[in-house]
Amino acid sequence: MLVRLGFMLLAAALAEPDATTKPVGTGAVFSPPTGFVEAMHKACDGKSGDAFDECFVAQMQRAGASEAAVAFARRTGNQGYLRRFRNDGLVSVAWAEFPFRANENSVCYLVNGLPPMIDVDDLVLLSPAVLERNADWASLAQAHPKLAIFPGDRFHEGAVVATPRPGGGQRFEVEYALVDGCHACARLGVLRLGFDFDGEAKYLGVSVLAVRPTAR
Q1: What is the pTM of this model?
Q2: Which of 113, 134, 156, 198 is deepest in the core (most CB within 10 A)?
Q3: Angle, in degrees to the nearest 10, between helices 49-62 and 67-75
Q4: Residue in 88, 80, 84 with CA at minimum distance from that of residue 60
Q5: What are the domain boundaries of the chain?
Q6: Which pLDDT score, from 0 to 100, does residue 152 have?
Q7: pLDDT confidence of 216, banded at 50, 70, 90?
């Protein structure tokens, strides 16, 4: 019932940061110049797997991407680049663009904490038990056995809302679409989650803030 939408394994998400990992900042933002996509396809089409991914990063470098921008792209598996960065304190938000995906091209990461990078759509971090304790979720899931979770807006500034965490630290509130089994299926409601970090930027976990069924 719970759909895993992210790409990071739980073990990787909770790993200690590498000592050489530099914090993400505005210097890692890459703004593709006019004609970048066309040039990239001309250079990289026909390659596959790792060769295509490496070619993509090489084209970023050729287009003037900074060392920090290339380093961020490598942290995405050489598949995306940093489009926007917002400084929210110890932990901040990084909007990445994955140009080769068929869906969900925009991805939001929580960066510079411990662990250093969390994909908000890596729902392996959300325990089914946490969901099931929410009465609104339980009711909706009972009425719709195929209930599934998909990303909400990941492009705009308001995609992730930063707020003080009750008791200290930071909370990042993120919304998800609740659908009847598939990406194009009927919209059943909205799920709102909170990703919590303590005052030292250590990830504490994710909680269900609200489940709002679609009004009928």
Answers
A1: 0.87
A2: 113
A3: 160
A4: 80
A5: 10-30+65-213
A6: 95
A7: low
